[in-house]
Amino acid sequence: MQPAKSIRADERRAFRVDEFCEAYRVSRATVYKLMKAGKLRTVLIAGRRVIPVEAAEALLLPTPAAPQIKRKEVGR
To answer: Is residue 69 part of a domain?
Structure first.
């Protein structure tokens, strides 16, 4: 059996809500709104709500944009 790999502090796997707020510069209210809307995945571990790094990074990915509406050119 191999020894468990130790995780360095800079290899964070999840954020507490307050840590997420500080790292991503958002309020607690915004975090809970995102959670309620299903836009931010969280995990409950021993009564503590944490946000996996993958879920945090997923917020930064572009979402499919609405189709662009072509405008008529004026004056031509």
So the answer is: no
Domain, as residue range, for 34:
14-58
Could you tell me the CA-to-CA distances from 47 to 20, 32, 41, 64, 71 in Å, in that order? 17, 16, 16, 35, 53
pLDDT tens, 5-58?
A: 665 656 889 999 999 999 999 999 999 999 999 999 999 999 999 999 999 999
Single out the residue of 43, 52, 46 nearest to residue 14, CA to CA. Answer: 52
| Domain assignment of residue 39, yes or no | yes
How many domains is the chain built from?
1
